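Posting this for the archive.
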Amino acid sequence: FVSDTDALLLELGKANGALLESEEKHKETIAEITEQLSASHAEEVKNLRARLESSSTMEFQRVISEVEQQRVSEVERITNELNESHARELATVKSVPGEITEQ
């Protein structure tokens, strides 16, 4: 013969055991999800790092190309200026009679 109090205590014990079991399952689920998120986050960081490195490399190559184009333009500009200056000086020298003879 079980008293009502004993029955209630028995039911409370069963409910408490079920709650503990449910809590343990929740903890396991949370741990699994946390692990999956950590792995996903690590993969995402890896992908972002690769994209950043690729972007940096492309930007570096673009800057190098622009600098090279500017260098070539500057060399061409200076070469043209020197050619024009040389042509002017040659014309000036040729305009002075009798000083220089062409060879």
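The longest helix spans residues 4-95. The chain has a mean pLDDT of 88.
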